[in-house]
Amino acid sequence: MPTRTGLAIAGAIAVLAPVAVALPAHSHGYTTNPPSRSSRCATGEVANCGPIQWEPQSVEGPKGFPAAGPRDGTICAAGDRRWAPLDDPRGGTWPAARMTSGVVSSFSWRFTAPHATTSFRYFITRNGWNPAQPLTRAALEPAPFLTRAYNGTRPGSTATHQGTIPAGKTGRHLILAVWDIADTSNAFYSCADVQLG
């Protein structure tokens, strides 16, 4: 016959088990269209990337960008020194996806563990920025050109957002995608090099 202590323990387990299952999973993700620097490293298109080649989904840092978040010069690596090769502009020679400004385009993410989401925001560099320098806030337009609010819902294993790169953008640019997580103090940062026609 079970003891009172045994019944109390069994009851506590029954109450706590659903809570443990409901805890949020560790989230990770990166942009695949246009391909992010971490994606290009993971596919082997770009060499000498360091450990990001095995963890393209792990570029996570403090949220609150642009008022807070990673400091200038470390934005593409989310302020994490392990991913520092993503901040190296390589003399402006990262492979760049061809896109067209002024028309609707697709912006896609791949997730290894979706998370409750506040929003996805996409920033682009100003005309005349220097692609041979690490990314800074001053190099970016001050407001995102595309924002998708999720209000705490979770994306699936992928997400695609439709948006328009501002007309008048031509030549080499960098798109910074920021995935703001709703229930942690972090965000994911994804830098993609583009060539605008």
Automatic annotation (TrEMBL):
<feature type="signal peptide">
    <location>
        <begin position="1"/>
        <end position="22"/>
    </location>
</feature>
<protein>
    <submittedName>
        <fullName>Chitin-binding protein</fullName>
    </submittedName>
</protein>
<dbReference type="InterPro" id="IPR051024">
    <property type="entry name" value="GlcNAc_Chitin_IntDeg"/>
</dbReference>
<dbReference type="Pfam" id="PF03067">
    <property type="entry name" value="LPMO_10"/>
</dbReference>
<feature type="domain" description="Chitin-binding type-4">
    <location>
        <begin position="28"/>
        <end position="194"/>
    </location>
</feature>
<keyword id="KW-0732">Signal</keyword>
<dbReference type="InterPro" id="IPR014756">
    <property type="entry name" value="Ig_E-set"/>
</dbReference>
<dbReference type="InterPro" id="IPR004302">
    <property type="entry name" value="Cellulose/chitin-bd_N"/>
</dbReference>
